[in-house]
Design goal:
Blueprint lengths: L2 H16 L7 E4 L3 H17 L4 E4 L2 H9 L13 E6 L3 E2 L5 E2 L6 H10 E9 L11 E5 L4 H10 L3 E4 L16 E6 L6 H9 L4 E4 L1 E2 L6 E6 L4 E5 L2
Parallel strand pairs: 1-2, 1-3, 3-6, 6-12
Antiparallel strand pairs: 4-5, 5-11, 7-9, 7-10, 8-9, 12-13
Helix pairs in contact: 1-2
Bound molecules: ribulose-5-phosphate (5RP).
Enzyme class: isomerase
EC number: 5.3.1.6
Keywords: Isomerase
């Protein structure tokens, strides 16, 4: 898919997801280029229709974007139950299991996903795969980065500490932790792998999302229009 087709697909998915948001809702706001289109459209609905919502941002980047689009912000402390969350993904399999975290925001994104009644995942078609096989990001307590990396290697990964692009040294997340990217190749049993990673002390959260499939709706943006997939 060329870049302009991909941008149009992301925009269509993002805009479509914003139409699912109703007056008075508390909305989880994911991180990434696709969900930013959703925020842009939500901002337009606030201005044009008087839509009244508040968003819980999953990163500094999401908070900055939401403010720019005029979306009032709140927190999980104030709203531990969210009506809906909108987020992107790096890969989606036919059972609606996800790999997330290219933007290193998956720890907060998982908290928001867990707190939401419904979750809209906005992607372009390149993200839809038969088998999850992208590197799985793991947010790691810096104190334990070596022990966690050893345990991840024992699970079959090739763990790589994520380095900054416009910064020397490791990427530091919004929570003050490191990211270790783990290539496992094709992941035969994502549910088990997520549980195994969760059992490692110091591995704070991984980018596999396997337990929310029943409340997820995937909006797949196409160059023209969208298709919608859910298990319900
Ligand atoms: O998980 C994420 C950030 O942690 C993003 O949602 C995911 O990387 C998709 O991003 P994009 O919409 O820019 O392709």
């Amino acid at each position: 898919m060329n870049t302009s087709a991909q941008a149009a697909s992301k925009q269509n998915a993002g805009y479509r997801s914003a139409e699912e948001v109703g007056d008075g809702m508390i909305v989880g706001l994911g991180t990434g280029s696709t969900v930013f289109f959703a925020m842009e459209r939500l901002g337009a609905r606030i201005r044009e229709e008087g839509l009244s919502i508040a968003g819980v941002p999953t990163s500094y980047q999401a908070a900055i974007r939401a403010r720019r689009y005029g979306i009032p912000l709140t927190s999980l402390d104030e709203h531990p139950g969210l009506d809906i969350a909108i987020d992107g993904a790096d890969q989606v399999d036919p059972a609606l299991r996800l790999i997330k975290g290219r933007g290193a925001a998956h720890l907060r994104e998982k908290c928001v996903c867990d707190a939401a009644e419904r979750v809209l995942i906005v992607v372009d078609r390149t993200k839809m795969v038969e088998t999850l096989d992208a590197p799985v990001p793991v947010e790691v307590l810096p104190f334990a980065v070596e022990t966690v990396s050893r345990r991840l290697a024992a699970l079959g990964a090739d763990p790589v500490l994520r380095e900054g692009v416009k910064k020397d040294g490791p990427v530091v997340t919004d929570n003050g932790n490191f990211i270790v990217d783990c290539s496992f190749g094709a992941i035969g049993d994502p549910d088990r792998l997520e549980a195994e990673i969760a059992s490692i002390p110091g591995a704070l959260e991984c980018g596999l999302f396997t337990t929310y499939t029943e409340k997820i709706t995937v909006i797949i943006g196409e160059e023209k229009g969208c298709s919608v997939v859910s298990l319900r």
